[in-house]
Every structure is written in C-alpha cells, then in structure tokens.
Amino acid sequence: MISAVLKLKGTDQKGIVYKITNLLYETGGNIIDAQQHKEELDQQFFMWVKFDCSEMNCTRSVFEEKLTEVSGELGMDFDISYSDKPKRMAIMVSKYDHCLVDLLMRHKYGELPCEIPLIISNHPDLEELAIHHRIPFFYIPVTKATKPEAELKMLELLKSHQIDLVIMARYMQILTPTLLDAFPSAIINVHHGFLPAFKGAKPYHQAYEKGVKIIGATSHYATADLDMGPIIEQETERIDHSHSANDMVRIGRDIEKKVLASAVKAHLEDRVMLYKGRTIIFN
Amino acid sequence: MISAVLKLKGTDQKGIVYKITNLLYETGGNIIDAQQHKEELDQQFFMWVKFDCSEMNCTRSVFEEKLTEVSGELGMDFDISYSDKPKRMAIMVSKYDHCLVDLLMRHKYGELPCEIPLIISNHPDLEELAIHHRIPFFYIPVTKATKPEAELKMLELLKSHQIDLVIMARYMQILTPTLLDAFPSAIINVHHGFLPAFKGAKPYHQAYEKGVKIIGATSHYATADLDMGPIIEQETERIDHSHSANDMVRIGRDIEKKVLASAVKAHLEDRVMLYKGRTIIFN
Amino acid sequence: MISAVLKLKGTDQKGIVYKITNLLYETGGNIIDAQQHKEELDQQFFMWVKFDCSEMNCTRSVFEEKLTEVSGELGMDFDISYSDKPKRMAIMVSKYDHCLVDLLMRHKYGELPCEIPLIISNHPDLEELAIHHRIPFFYIPVTKATKPEAELKMLELLKSHQIDLVIMARYMQILTPTLLDAFPSAIINVHHGFLPAFKGAKPYHQAYEKGVKIIGATSHYATADLDMGPIIEQETERIDHSHSANDMVRIGRDIEKKVLASAVKAHLEDRVMLYKGRTIIFN
Amino acid sequence: MISAVLKLKGTDQKGIVYKITNLLYETGGNIIDAQQHKEELDQQFFMWVKFDCSEMNCTRSVFEEKLTEVSGELGMDFDISYSDKPKRMAIMVSKYDHCLVDLLMRHKYGELPCEIPLIISNHPDLEELAIHHRIPFFYIPVTKATKPEAELKMLELLKSHQIDLVIMARYMQILTPTLLDAFPSAIINVHHGFLPAFKGAKPYHQAYEKGVKIIGATSHYATADLDMGPIIEQETERIDHSHSANDMVRIGRDIEKKVLASAVKAHLEDRVMLYKGRTIIFN
Which helix (H) or strand (E) covers residue D61, if one does? Predict the structure, then answer.
C-alpha cells in the first residue's frame, strides 16, 4: 500500500471536512486516518488526512490540481507527501554519539521512514561508527573563523544530496542563517534542558543550582533565536538530592535520545504542523 | 453551543467519512472533531464525530432519520447523543469514600458532564457526605440472603431515576445479572489491581508476594465474568521493597481515583466504543 | 511503637554514623531506618535516623543532652522529633477547594501524621466544608489596605493554636514578612507551574503561549522571594496542542493536589532537610 | 577513591548498624552511604553499606576476618565487593541487537562498572557489531539436539573468562540447569511483558487480545521456573486501541532496553539483595 499525507490549514468554515473527503472519494483515495484541530482563539482550522492512494483514478498531478482548486475555494494552504517518496535526512554530530546511534538503530528497525544519505561532523571521531552503519561521513571542522565557509560547504553537501531534513544530534555548534534559512522548519535540534526554563549552556548545572526535582529535554525546530524554536517534543524524569550533575548528564542522555527520536519520527511521518511558533502534532 | 457526538461502526469501505460529513454539511452541522479507527485484522471501521448542532437546518428527528438512511446504506450501526441531554449517573459505594469524593469534586468543577441524581450504598456510613453534597442517598443493606431482593430494589431506584450509567466507586459487592443485564456496558467498576495480572481479592498482597516493582489499577465495564469486562483505563505506579502492603493500599487509592475518573469522563463524553471485549477510546 | 526522627548536618568526617548509632545503641534506641547524604562540593554531611524509642533506657531529656554532647563533638547541628507529638498544621485557603479536600481526605485516611486545629480563609465560601470535616474555620478578609492587620490576626490565631506548619492550599494572597518570618521553612505553598519556568500569574497561559508539551506544578517553602523558595516536590503531565488553557487548569488541579500532598507528607514525617536553598528529602 | 560495598542479612536485633559502623570506624573505612531494610513480617534485617576503603588501616583480608567475626556474632551473612575489582560480564544474544547495543553504549559512557570480555550468540548475525565494539564474539549454534553440548561449550567459555554475570540480552533460548546452576542469581533475563501477567511467548499479542491500556517489560534473574525468577526491574508504557501488535513491539523495544540496563546497573553496583524470591534494591 502507498499512502499519502495531506495537511491543510486556514480559517474555519462549514464544509471543510466534507469537501476534502468528497474530493478523496471522487478520486478513489481511501481514508486511513483523518484528524482536525481548531485554534479556538482565532478560528484557524487544521486538517490532517492520511489516505491510501494506491487505487486512485487519476494521476498525482491531476489530483493535486483538483486539490489546489478545492483548497483555493476554501482559502486554505495545503501540503502533500507520499510514502513512496521518503524524506532524505542528514544527521549532524560532534563527539557525543548516543543520539546518533539511537537514530541509526531506530532507522534500521524501520521506525523512521527516511533515507540517511550522509552524516556531517565538525569532529572526525564518529567516522568509524558511520562506516559501521555504511553511511557516508563528512568531516568539516568548524572554528570561529571558518564557520561561514564551513557552513557553506555543509549547505552544498546538503543540497547536492537533496536533503529534506537536518537533525542536530547533539551537534555542538550554533547554526548561522546560512543553514537556518536554507532549511526553514526542517532542522531539528535537541536541547538538554526542559525549555523554556534552562536555556543556553550547562542546563543541568542550572537545574542543580535551583534544586529542581525533575529534569527534562526538549527537541525543537532550530531558529535564529537560540533554543526558542517551536517545541516538538519534551520529556521529563524525576531526580532527587542524591543525583550529582554527572547523574543528571547520564539521565539526560536517555531523555535526549527519546525526545529527539520522537520529534524526528513525527516530522518524517508528516504529522507536524506549525502555527504561531507552536507545533500541532497529529498522531 | 450545543454539540452532538455521533459514533458509527461497520465494515470498512470507501466513502464512509465523505458520506457522513456530507450529511452534516447538508444539514448544517459544523464538525468540531472527527476521528476514525480501523481494526486491520477484520476490516472494521469506527468513526467518531463531534459537531456543533446548534445551527442545523432540520430537527433532530429529521436528522436522525437521514442518518439512519445513510448509515443503513453503509451497513453501519450508529449512536448519537447531545450535550444538552447530559447522562444521569448513579454512584454505588460501600465504606471507602475516596473514589466517591473524587468523582463528586470533579463533578463540581465541571469535569464530568452529567447529573448525579442518587448515591446507593450497602452501608449507612457515607450518608453525611452525600448530604454535604446535596445528593439523595439510599441505604440498601446487602447480605447473601437478601442480595436478590436488594438488587431488585436498586434496579427500581435506578430505573425510577432514569439512570444511564452506574459507577461502582469501590462498591464491595459482586453484582448479579439482575443489575448487569439491565445496564449493559453502562456499569463501570474499578479494580485495585493491574488486570489481568491480579484478579479477585487482595491484589496488593498478591503483588507483594510476587515482588513486582509496579502496581496498578484498572477501570472496566462490569460483566458477569468477574474483573474481566472491557478495560477502559489503567494506571501504574512504581513501588519498591520498602513499601508495605499498607503503602500499596495508600498508593492504590490514588491510582484507583485516577483510573475511575478517567473512565467515567470518557464514557460521559461518549468517547468509548466497544469491539470484541476491548474498548476503542477517542480523545 | 513510638518512633523518633533525628536529623543531623555538618562537615563530613570519619565516624559520624558510628558515633550516632553508638549513642542509640547505648541508650536502647532501635534503628528502623538510617540514611545519609553528602554534598560532594563542600563536604557537608546529612544524616537522617528513624528509631524506635519506646524502649530507651533514659528519658528524652537525658537522651537529648547526650545527643547535644555527641553532635557538639562532631560539630553538627541536630533536630529531633517524636511520633507521639504530631505536628499541628494550619491550612490557608481562598475559594478553590481541591487541594484542601485532598489534604483533609488524606488526613482522614491516616496518610498525614498531624493535627489540623484550624482552617483560615480570606473568603467565607469554604466554611461549610470545614464544618463537614469538623475543623474550626476562621474567615479573615484581606484587602490591600487591611492586609497588615489581617496577617497580624492570622499570626495570633496560628500562635494561639500552637501551629507548627502552615499550608497555603491555593491561598491566593502573597504573604508578607509578618507571617513568613514567624514560620521560617514552615510555610508550604503550591505553585501551579513548573518552576523556575513559569513564575507569577497565569502560568498555564504562559505555558500555552510557549507551546510546551509538558506542564507541571511545584510545592515549595514560601519565602519573601515570590515562588523562589526551596522546591520540595514537582510533578509534570503531558499535554498537546488540543489542550485549551482550561484543560491545563483541569490537569493542573490534579498535579497541584499531588505535589502539595507529597510535600506536606515529607515535611510532617520530618524527611526534609535544607541546604543552600535546596531540599534534601529522605524517603 | 576505591570503594567497597558490604551487604549483610540476618535476623533483626539491636546494635547491628552500630556494630558494623564501629568496625568500619576502627579500621578506617569512611561511610559514603548506608541503607537498611527490615522485612516486618519475619524480622529479617538487610544492611547495605558503601564505604571509602582507600585509607583503611588494615589489609582487606584482615578486614574481612574481623567482618566475619562481627557478623558471626550478629548471626548475619555478608558479602563484600570492591570497586577496583569490577565484575566481568558476558552478554548472550540471538538476532535482535537493540538491548546489546544499548548495553554496549552505556558501558562506553561509563554507566556500567564492569568488563565485557565476550559476547556469545546462537546466531552469527551480530559478529560485525561485536567487532565494531572490539569485543570477542563466539558463535555457538543451538538446536534441540545440540543444546546440552552447546551449553557445555558456553559454560566452558564463561568459566575460562572468569565471568561473574551473564546477561540474556534478548537471547531467544531457554537455558537449562547446566548454565542456570553454574550462575545462581547471576543470570539476568529481560522478558518483553509485564510479568506476572503475560508469561511465555508472544506477550504483546496476549496484551492486545486482552485490550490492556498499558504494556510493560520485566528484567529478572533467570531460574528454572520460566519467567518466574526474582523481578529486578519493571517499566510500563501507555498504549491505546490505535496501536497494532507491531507498534507494541516497537514500544516494547524501548522498555526492554530500559529495564535491562537498569537491572544490570543495579546488579553491577551490588545494590541487589535477594529474599524469598523477591529483590531488595538499594539506591
């Protein structure tokens, strides 16, 4: 079975669900799952439909023309993707490999519907791991001075590999607009703190100082505003006075893996929509 | 706003969502939320639609006629309820009041859309609590000998109060078919164990003996098969060797309250569908 | 059995545990549980001992003299309490009763070892509830102008009732030093946000704006620095885009009850020690 | 710093903690952490002490002699281990590698204090992974007919590598007494079900049939009684009607990794004691 995911958003009005499902009915799409969300405060309507498109009575381009027409009448924007065109995902890392290994393992087990054409790192350390997983590894060192040039190299690599999604799997550099602007809402970062509480460096040490009883991690779209992009997933774990900052780092690794994997999965399955700096995630 | 919840089930086929949403569009219903579920193994389709019915262009009976027609064509069964006709819920208790108080508090805070016309107990202890909450309290003692007669009395009370849903809020008697058959899938019980592991009496003592590291509680529809009715909600909590059976009872009270309240809320909001002894719960 | 809880703190050195347990052995105390904690960064040692004191071979005052001597030699401060002298706890409320009811229910079930001699409120609404639970209720209205006078009245009431611990069970006024200074580390507040992220008013609306995926609540000792006192307990709960601010308020009620009850229990069982604005909680 | 962990168990009596800590004081051991547990029903006392043994004033053998004497007087059994003699752990696998990779990663990050001298498998598939991690890999095929002989080979390997602990990281064969008896309470298995509910094969399918709302996994010491050995760790995760058996397998992988890693860590840190088929785990 080949499936498609259709996402629509626009101002709420009667008949949206009917008109969209009508189009699917007429073109031979079979709805597998459909979900909606309404932002009550400003009457915005979000629709998410997954449908079996393997027995449609028209080509994809004809379908998309009709869809443009119907959504145009409804004043809504749409976005569509097909399961036989999996996204191409690049992973950026530095020295820590726990998130990278976790993503590669999940990919191997079929949890993440994507291709992983390359890994980029500002350190050479993880090349052997990439080789073990048979994924091309590009080592691009980054210093303050060389960062602009390095990011241009990265950009070229990402473009030449037709990358759709970039994962910062504990990549320890702040990206500049060179990359950020080239992949709007398509770069996912993991922050080892429960945002918005502990932004910036050493969040676990901040948490220790405050004596919090719960720590967390956050995965979010990277934006120019550091650690402030739309939150995709968060997780927390209990700690107590007996946990050293080192213990928190250890516990943190587990939470980081979990929130990053969950965010990546949601994005790859086209379950994420954005609205006013927040995410709407269907499931 | 007055809303309605429509639930349909039947064999899957193309066009179900379209035909139902078409009907709503034509009759002026505005979809607030629509969810679906398909049982892959036997191609059963379940649809749940919540819609604003305050501006419909026909009466409810006309709408339901049309609905009968459309669902008939689709070979599906349906069920509909309206927010201006809240369910009438009876609560049965014995001596423990933690679940009862929890339900009454949530009701007061508007979490449970229902009326509570009466409380029935086989003990007189909780009458004062009922008075405090201004709910009629009926004390019907139950012994082995008087159980048949007692249940008939209860049945009469429930019928005369037009009760739709009965909650066994730690009511410590096993019901007979007299009541069970009168309220199919409309009696909710809470079991203080993580079913199916610890059925029957003293589940916490069973859990202690086995040395489990997690205990739980389960809310389910009461059926003739003791503690085996369709599970609506479950919760677990970590324990360790330092917890006595008494500690488990204490922790258990919290989980019992939680699973019962959650199950009751799901039922009252018409989010539960049944299939082959399992529940499908939309949210 | 009558038990005592002994808490000691001071600079770490060899022999602390031995010397304290030696004293207990010689005086006939039987250790039920003993726990330690060391702050690695500055070599501070914290010891917590619960012991059966019902068969001691000396009076409490003789024991405490010996304890003063031993701890003096070790350069440590100590604090001792006895299970036959339960703490006296006052509860302050405004209009919301969910935390109050939760505390009263837990007290009734024997979860909270204390006496509750009075409830104080700045609103008359919850008097009937207090009457139902047979606890004296004092209504002391508070306006900006009358706050100093009102707090003096409260202070007098708390003193005349020999109160050891004050619980702000969603008491919606900021306390002044009049009360804060009279009960150092003995006033527990519950904040309906996951501190330190969302301080001050309307934390759930702040959480909604930020699009967080997890909300929380925090119980802490009240200090002059609003919502910044030592954190005793925190809990979190997952939310998603479909939750309105109202839903968060509802979920929040459950978390608030939980963190407040847990903090109160820890304090009443003398399991909390303080160090540099953080809590050390033995269990 | 070199530390030691001392575990004692026996009938409760006054002075146990004092006598043990006295011995440590006299021999120059500095207590880092000490915990106790009493089984109330039959007056058994369990003591766990972690102490800095790097500045003791006697040799380990002299210390252990004194310890034998003191514990003998108290009628208690003891067990001691030293941090400079990490346990030697073998890992047994079949084809699934998620638990193996997880353990190896945690080992690399220093979370698991042990040496891993070998991996044994009844399939050749994971050899490359072992090579990547530079751990000797032994492929020993097992059929019904060859199992006795295969286990003897394994036993020889485990003995010749001085193995202290064997981990069945989704090793899909039932062990016979050949191995079980050679490593009493030193073989840890992970079962992909929330024991004791779903023993044996295909636990997730059992869970699906019952319509449970929570699934789990259990790590336990392997005994002759299949899936009934002392439980070390359990974890649960929420599911709902929309999860297929495949989804449960996916969620299950995460829980399996977690409970196995947690159990292995507890065992390696000598925090586990056994009593009547249950575990007492200090932390």
Answer: helix D60-74
